[in-house]
Amino acid sequence: MDQFFDTFLNWQYIWEVFPDLLKTGLLNTLILSVAAAIIGTLLGMVLAVMGLSTKRWLRWPARVYTDIFRGLPAILTILVIGQGVGLLARDLVGNNPYPLGIAALSLIAAAYIGEIFRAGIQSVDKGQLEASRALGMSYSKAMLLVVIPQGVRRVLPALVNQFIALVKDSTLVYFLGFLTSQRELFRIGQDLAANTGNLSPLVAAGVVYLVITVPLTHLVNYIDKRLQTGRKVTAESNEMLAGGAAI
């Protein structure tokens, strides 16, 4: 038991690594995750709209993209983008792997977020689109102002879950060889663990990850509960209106 605590809960190493985890690791993890989430959300919405198009030349590229980036292991995508595409984009990014790490995470996130958006948009009753068109809206305007906002609202919990997954996937970018100032949480914990032969720094990094992900998990549950309450109230209101009309 003493050996277990000394290997995983050595407070000397935990306190030693915490300043770097909070000052450097947490900042870089959030930059990687938030930047990739924003770019991935924008690309995902484009993919969702393309995937719902009646035109094959729009629908098929979105389908192929989604199948490829959801089918490949995340680490393989990161290595291909970071080391393969990095050679082609060297004039643009130089030897800095940071933008390539964000790009790889963004492309992975876009595939999943696109499917989330597509499912949300398809869940909206077709009558919403038909009613909007009857009021004189164009198809694109009806989708943009009526259908898509409702679809996005329905998939908010899934989007937050995807961001949690993105935070955890950010650990994989360390394969690209970031500079000391660019290291994220996992890399900082791993470096000190390798230098000391003790796993306590990785445990400390895990605690910081939990500080990020656990509140987000509870946020997902809160949003989902609010949405279910809203749907219940709406359904009851519709029943009351139907009953009033019958009278």
Bin the strand percentage: under 5%
Q: What is the approximate shape?
A: globular
Coarse structural class: mainly alpha
Measured as a percent range, the helix fraction is over 70%
Describe the biggest sheet?
none
Radius of gyration: 23 Å
| Uncertain residue segments | none
Please give the count of helices: 11
Tell me how many strands there are: 0
Oligomeric form: single chain
The first-to-last residue Cα distance is 74 Å
Q: What series of H and E elements makes up the topology?
A: HHHHHHHHHHH
If you had to describe this structure to a student in words, what would you say it looks like?
The chain has 247 residues and is mainly α. Helix content is 84%, strand content 0%.
Labels describing this entry:
247 residues, mainly alpha, 11 helices
Outline of the structure:
The protein is mainly α and 247 residues long. The protein has helices spanning 2-8, 11-52, 56-71, 74-88, 90-93, 98-123, 126-134, 139-154, 156-169, 185-196, 200-246. Helix 2 packs antiparallel against helix 3, helix 2 runs antiparallel to helix 10 (185-196) and helix 6 runs antiparallel to helix 9.
